[in-house]
Design a protein that fits this description.
The chain is an all-alpha fold. Helices cover 80% and strands 0% of the residues.
Length: 133
Amino acid sequence: MSHSMPWTIGALVLALVVYVWAMLKVGQARGKYGVAAPAVTGAPEFERAFRAQQNTVEQMVLFVPLLGLAALVWGDIAAGAYGLVWCLGRILYIETYSRGANRSAGFMLSAGVSLGVLIAVIVTFGLRHLGVG
């Protein structure tokens, strides 16, 4: 049996591209500000780029399984939409935080949509378990 989930897979690939882009930004900051690996402290500009990348890793721990659960519960297009919003939020967060802004609308967008999807998945599974949906 074949399952085609192009929007979900596309969102996952986009999330991985965003993550690699964040890694490259850290590498550039290491070179620009003279922070040799394995050091994780140095110029504030480097530390912001590093923290934005690390925060993306932390967010992916929730995002990746939720993306799969969203596809399972609501279908490919809904999961793909969730993934796209999450990726846009991450891009906005990485760009603004790396430039010195505090947590931005991008952070709230990606974290908020994940929290909303998590709650909605729990409610949906609960209702289905009770036979209400």
